[in-house]
Design goal:
- It is a single chain.
- By secondary structure, this protein is of the alpha+beta class.
- The protein has 2 domains: 67 residues, Arc Repressor Mutant, subunit A; 172 residues, GAF domain (Beta-Lactamase).
- The protein has 10 helices and 8 strands.
- Strands 5-4-3-8-7-6 form a 6-stranded antiparallel β-sheet. A two-stranded antiparallel ribbon has the order 1-2.
- Strand 1 and strand 2 form a beta hairpin.
- The longest helix is centred in the N-terminal third of the chain and has 20 residues.
- The two termini are 35 Å apart.
Protein backbone atom coordinates (compact mmCIF):
# COMPACT_ATOMS: atom_id res chain seq x y z
CA UNK A 1 0.00 0.00 0.00
CA UNK A 2 2.49 2.52 -1.20
CA UNK A 3 0.28 5.11 -2.85
CA UNK A 4 -2.52 7.13 -1.37
CA UNK A 5 -5.08 5.50 -3.67
CA UNK A 6 -3.95 2.10 -2.40
CA UNK A 7 -4.21 3.34 1.18
CA UNK A 8 -7.78 4.47 0.60
CA UNK A 9 -8.66 1.14 -1.01
CA UNK A 10 -6.99 -0.81 1.79
CA UNK A 11 -9.03 1.14 4.34
CA UNK A 12 -12.19 0.40 2.36
CA UNK A 13 -11.41 -3.31 2.52
CA UNK A 14 -10.64 -3.18 6.24
CA UNK A 15 -13.84 -1.23 6.92
CA UNK A 16 -15.91 -3.69 4.89
CA UNK A 17 -14.45 -6.70 6.72
CA UNK A 18 -14.92 -5.05 10.12
CA UNK A 19 -18.53 -4.05 9.47
CA UNK A 20 -19.30 -7.52 8.13
CA UNK A 21 -17.88 -9.04 11.32
CA UNK A 22 -20.10 -6.77 13.42
CA UNK A 23 -23.24 -8.08 11.69
CA UNK A 24 -22.48 -11.68 12.67
CA UNK A 25 -22.96 -12.81 9.07
CA UNK A 26 -20.53 -14.94 7.05
CA UNK A 27 -17.21 -13.16 6.50
CA UNK A 28 -16.11 -11.96 3.07
CA UNK A 29 -13.84 -13.85 0.69
CA UNK A 30 -11.63 -12.00 -1.82
CA UNK A 31 -14.38 -12.25 -4.44
CA UNK A 32 -17.07 -10.97 -2.09
CA UNK A 33 -14.84 -8.11 -0.91
CA UNK A 34 -14.24 -7.14 -4.53
CA UNK A 35 -17.97 -7.25 -5.24
CA UNK A 36 -18.84 -5.31 -2.09
CA UNK A 37 -16.25 -2.54 -2.51
CA UNK A 38 -16.11 -2.31 -6.30
CA UNK A 39 -12.34 -2.83 -6.28
CA UNK A 40 -10.78 -5.10 -8.91
CA UNK A 41 -10.38 -8.66 -7.61
CA UNK A 42 -6.64 -8.90 -8.33
CA UNK A 43 -6.09 -5.66 -6.42
CA UNK A 44 -8.21 -6.89 -3.51
CA UNK A 45 -6.07 -10.03 -3.40
CA UNK A 46 -2.84 -8.03 -3.20
CA UNK A 47 -4.10 -5.49 -0.68
CA UNK A 48 -5.60 -8.11 1.63
CA UNK A 49 -2.27 -9.95 1.62
CA UNK A 50 -0.59 -6.77 2.85
CA UNK A 51 -3.29 -6.22 5.48
CA UNK A 52 -2.79 -9.79 6.71
CA UNK A 53 0.97 -9.23 6.90
CA UNK A 54 0.30 -6.09 8.96
CA UNK A 55 -2.04 -8.15 11.18
CA UNK A 56 -4.89 -5.76 10.40
CA UNK A 57 -6.83 -8.67 8.85
CA UNK A 58 -6.85 -12.41 9.48
CA UNK A 59 -7.50 -15.06 6.83
CA UNK A 60 -8.71 -18.45 8.05
CA UNK A 61 -8.77 -21.90 6.50
CA UNK A 62 -12.08 -21.07 4.82
CA UNK A 63 -10.31 -18.20 2.98
CA UNK A 64 -12.47 -15.51 4.56
CA UNK A 65 -11.26 -12.31 6.21
CA UNK A 66 -11.89 -10.97 9.70
CA UNK A 67 -10.37 -8.06 11.63
CA UNK A 68 -6.89 -8.99 12.86
CA UNK A 69 -5.21 -8.42 16.22
CA UNK A 70 -3.48 -5.23 15.13
CA UNK A 71 -6.85 -3.72 14.21
CA UNK A 72 -8.08 -4.24 17.76
CA UNK A 73 -4.79 -2.95 19.20
CA UNK A 74 -5.21 0.28 17.22
CA UNK A 75 -8.80 0.61 18.42
CA UNK A 76 -7.68 0.10 22.02
CA UNK A 77 -4.75 2.52 21.66
CA UNK A 78 -7.09 5.29 20.54
CA UNK A 79 -8.78 5.10 23.93
CA UNK A 80 -5.65 5.40 26.04
CA UNK A 81 -5.92 8.45 28.32
CA UNK A 82 -2.99 10.39 26.85
CA UNK A 83 -4.15 9.91 23.27
CA UNK A 84 -7.68 11.02 24.10
CA UNK A 85 -6.34 14.05 25.95
CA UNK A 86 -4.00 14.91 23.07
CA UNK A 87 -7.00 15.61 20.86
CA UNK A 88 -7.22 19.15 22.21
CA UNK A 89 -3.61 19.77 21.16
CA UNK A 90 -4.35 18.60 17.62
CA UNK A 91 -7.45 20.78 17.45
CA UNK A 92 -5.48 23.79 18.62
CA UNK A 93 -2.93 23.34 15.83
CA UNK A 94 -5.67 22.93 13.22
CA UNK A 95 -7.45 26.05 14.50
CA UNK A 96 -4.33 28.19 14.09
CA UNK A 97 -2.81 26.77 10.90
CA UNK A 98 -4.12 25.26 7.62
CA UNK A 99 -2.90 21.75 8.44
CA UNK A 100 -3.97 18.22 9.24
CA UNK A 101 -2.54 17.41 12.68
CA UNK A 102 -1.73 13.75 13.26
CA UNK A 103 -0.37 11.36 15.87
CA UNK A 104 1.24 8.19 14.53
CA UNK A 105 3.07 5.17 15.92
CA UNK A 106 5.55 2.77 14.34
CA UNK A 107 4.43 -0.50 12.77
CA UNK A 108 7.56 -2.13 11.40
CA UNK A 109 8.55 -0.20 8.28
CA UNK A 110 5.27 1.76 8.31
CA UNK A 111 3.87 4.69 10.24
CA UNK A 112 0.44 3.89 11.70
CA UNK A 113 -2.06 6.74 12.10
CA UNK A 114 -3.64 6.72 15.57
CA UNK A 115 -5.51 10.03 15.70
CA UNK A 116 -5.92 13.13 13.55
CA UNK A 117 -7.75 16.42 13.32
CA UNK A 118 -8.45 18.27 10.07
CA UNK A 119 -9.78 21.70 9.11
CA UNK A 120 -13.52 22.11 8.74
CA UNK A 121 -13.01 22.23 4.98
CA UNK A 122 -12.44 18.47 5.07
CA UNK A 123 -9.17 18.40 3.14
CA UNK A 124 -8.27 14.97 4.53
CA UNK A 125 -11.33 12.95 3.56
CA UNK A 126 -9.19 9.86 2.92
CA UNK A 127 -7.62 9.84 6.41
CA UNK A 128 -8.69 7.10 8.80
CA UNK A 129 -7.20 5.82 12.06
CA UNK A 130 -5.26 2.68 11.21
CA UNK A 131 -3.97 4.07 7.91
CA UNK A 132 -0.36 3.12 7.22
CA UNK A 133 2.28 5.00 5.22
CA UNK A 134 5.98 4.31 4.54
CA UNK A 135 8.05 5.19 7.57
CA UNK A 136 11.00 6.57 5.58
CA UNK A 137 9.30 9.19 3.37
CA UNK A 138 6.78 10.83 5.70
CA UNK A 139 7.32 13.38 8.42
CA UNK A 140 5.50 11.20 10.92
CA UNK A 141 7.65 8.21 10.03
CA UNK A 142 10.95 10.04 10.15
CA UNK A 143 10.15 11.44 13.58
CA UNK A 144 9.61 7.84 14.71
CA UNK A 145 13.10 7.03 13.37
CA UNK A 146 14.68 10.04 15.14
CA UNK A 147 16.86 7.94 17.47
CA UNK A 148 17.73 5.25 14.90
CA UNK A 149 21.36 4.58 14.03
CA UNK A 150 22.43 3.67 10.46
CA UNK A 151 22.73 0.03 11.60
CA UNK A 152 19.20 0.10 13.02
CA UNK A 153 17.91 1.61 9.77
CA UNK A 154 19.64 -1.14 7.80
CA UNK A 155 18.05 -3.81 9.97
CA UNK A 156 14.58 -2.28 9.62
CA UNK A 157 14.67 -1.19 5.98
CA UNK A 158 17.29 -3.40 4.37
CA UNK A 159 14.66 -5.01 2.14
CA UNK A 160 12.56 -1.89 1.52
CA UNK A 161 11.86 -0.75 -2.03
CA UNK A 162 12.78 2.93 -1.98
CA UNK A 163 12.53 3.62 -5.71
CA UNK A 164 9.05 4.53 -6.90
CA UNK A 165 7.67 5.15 -3.41
CA UNK A 166 6.62 8.54 -2.11
CA UNK A 167 6.87 12.00 -3.62
CA UNK A 168 9.46 13.74 -5.79
CA UNK A 169 11.83 14.46 -2.88
CA UNK A 170 11.67 11.07 -1.14
CA UNK A 171 14.90 9.42 0.02
CA UNK A 172 16.14 6.68 -2.31
CA UNK A 173 18.56 4.86 0.00
CA UNK A 174 19.26 4.14 3.65
CA UNK A 175 22.34 6.38 3.50
CA UNK A 176 20.25 9.29 2.22
CA UNK A 177 17.62 8.62 4.88
CA UNK A 178 20.27 8.56 7.63
CA UNK A 179 21.62 11.91 6.41
CA UNK A 180 18.15 13.44 6.55
CA UNK A 181 17.57 12.13 10.07
CA UNK A 182 20.84 13.75 11.13
CA UNK A 183 19.67 16.99 9.52
CA UNK A 184 16.36 16.67 11.40
CA UNK A 185 18.17 16.32 14.73
CA UNK A 186 20.29 19.38 13.99
CA UNK A 187 17.24 21.45 13.05
CA UNK A 188 15.14 20.16 15.94
CA UNK A 189 12.25 18.93 13.77
CA UNK A 190 11.48 16.91 10.65
CA UNK A 191 10.86 18.76 7.40
CA UNK A 192 9.73 16.24 4.77
CA UNK A 193 8.46 18.63 2.11
CA UNK A 194 7.25 16.74 -0.99
CA UNK A 195 8.69 13.46 0.30
CA UNK A 196 5.32 11.68 0.28
CA UNK A 197 3.06 13.85 -1.85
CA UNK A 198 3.66 16.52 -4.48
CA UNK A 199 3.50 20.11 -3.13
CA UNK A 200 2.82 18.85 0.40
CA UNK A 201 4.41 20.36 3.50
CA UNK A 202 5.09 17.68 6.12
CA UNK A 203 6.54 18.73 9.49
CA UNK A 204 6.96 16.46 12.51
CA UNK A 205 8.47 15.98 15.96
CA UNK A 206 8.83 12.83 18.09
CA UNK A 207 6.72 12.15 21.18
CA UNK A 208 8.53 10.49 24.06
CA UNK A 209 7.44 8.34 26.97
CA UNK A 210 9.10 6.52 29.83
CA UNK A 211 12.91 6.42 29.75
CA UNK A 212 12.77 9.05 26.99
CA UNK A 213 11.80 6.39 24.44
CA UNK A 214 9.90 7.51 21.33
CA UNK A 215 6.33 6.24 21.56
CA UNK A 216 4.70 8.21 18.74
CA UNK A 217 5.10 11.26 16.53
CA UNK A 218 3.21 14.51 16.03
CA UNK A 219 3.02 15.72 12.44
CA UNK A 220 1.31 18.51 10.53
CA UNK A 221 0.62 18.06 6.82
CA UNK A 222 -0.61 20.74 4.43
CA UNK A 223 -0.72 21.76 0.80
CA UNK A 224 -1.55 25.38 1.61
CA UNK A 225 0.85 26.28 4.44
CA UNK A 226 2.79 29.45 3.66
CA UNK A 227 6.55 29.35 4.13
CA UNK A 228 6.29 32.36 6.43
CA UNK A 229 3.97 30.37 8.72
CA UNK A 230 6.39 27.47 9.16
CA UNK A 231 8.53 28.85 12.04
CA UNK A 232 5.46 29.66 14.15
CA UNK A 233 3.94 26.25 13.41
CA UNK A 234 7.15 24.42 14.38
CA UNK A 235 7.28 26.38 17.65
CA UNK A 236 3.68 25.44 18.43
CA UNK A 237 4.30 21.80 17.50
CA UNK A 238 7.28 21.56 19.87
CA UNK A 239 5.25 23.09 22.68
CA UNK A 240 2.36 20.71 21.97
CA UNK A 241 4.78 17.75 21.86
CA UNK A 242 6.12 18.70 25.30
CA UNK A 243 2.60 18.81 26.72
CA UNK A 244 1.64 15.51 25.10
CA UNK A 245 4.83 13.90 26.41
CA UNK A 246 3.80 15.00 29.89
CA UNK A 247 0.48 13.21 29.33
CA UNK A 248 2.26 10.05 28.19
CA UNK A 249 4.54 9.90 31.22
CA UNK A 250 1.82 10.98 33.67
CA UNK A 251 -1.46 9.59 32.27
CA UNK A 252 -4.56 11.63 32.97
Amino acid sequence: MQQQSSLAQGLSLLTAATRREATGRSAFTVSRLAEHTGIERSRVSRLTQELVQLRMLEKNEELVFRPGPRHFEVAAARHTPWLRAARSELRSLVARFPVDARISASLGDRALLLRFESPASGTAASLRPGMVTPIWCTGAGRALLWDSSPDALEQLLGNAQFVGVGGPRAAYSIAELAARIERDRTGGHVDAFEEFEHESSDLAVPLRGEADAIVASLSCVSQSLLEAETPALVTEMKAAAARITALVTSPV
